[in-house]
Amino acid sequence: MRNAVLLIVLAACGARQKQALAEQEDFQCKDRLISYVVSGHMAASELGVQMDCADGPKIKRWKVDKQGKRVDDVRVMTPGEFDKVWREVDGTGWVNLKDCENGTGGKHDPIYVFDIKDDQNKSSFQCQSQTAPYPYNGLVDPLDVAAQQGRPQLGDDEPAEAKALEKKPKK
Fold first, then answer.
1. DSSP 112-171
2. Which residues are CB-contacts of 116 (< 8 A; sequence separation ≥ 6)?
3. What is the pLDDT of residues 3-34, one digit of tens each?
4. Tens digit of each residue's pLDDT (9 = 90 or more) over 84-128
5. What SS3 state is found at 16?
6. Are 52 and 30 in contact, with CB atoms under 8 Å apart?
7. 30: closest CA among 98, 113, 89?
8. How far from 79 is each of 12, 19, 153, CA to CA, in Å?
């Protein structure tokens, strides 16, 4: 019985290993990179996500709080996961996107700056808006989902002032 269980476990591990190796062999980076940086967001002075494959598929996210403290993390992606996110990005028609005209455009609204490239095209554009409007949200959303997958929240979202209030003795 124990041997049968061991064989099943080894077979399952072998299948995953085989899939990982197959994906690795078939993966072509094609110099792909996408990043967005949001400046002036209410959650932080800067937020950003970058996905690239220069040193293997990976995704990085960062946050700079209002006091200038930076926190970030990077995680390796499987080639299949990278390609899936890239297909969503590619589906926006990023090659044809320019600075947006459909953002909220308020004087104090955050500014989204996008940089995207592959082995054939390169594009940079921006959008001033409270949230990324269509079709720019088609770039932000898949990156955010991939960057947050299996990860805790980046940094502490509770302001120091709120923490100080919690520590004050109640009257």
1. EEEEEE-SS-EEEEEEESSSPPTTTHHHHHHHHHHHHTT---SS--S-HHHHHHHHSPP-
2. 33, 34, 35, 89, 94, 122, 123, 124, 139
3. 555 445 445 555 556 555 555 557 999 999 99
4. 999 999 999 999 999 999 999 999 999 999 999 999 999 999 999
5. helix
6. no
7. 89
8. 20, 10, 24
Pick among 3.30.1560.10, 3.20.20.70, 3.40.1000.20, 3.30.830.10: CATH of 26-150: 3.30.1560.10
68 and 45 in contact (C-beta within 8 Å)? Answer: yes
Instruction: For residue 116, list its beta bridge partners.
Output: 34, 123
- Helix (H) or strand (E) holding 86, with range, is helix 79-90
Residue partners of 148: CB distance under 8 A and separation at least 6: 61
pTM of the model as a whole: 0.77
Q: Are 53 and 82 in contact (CB under 8 A)?
A: yes
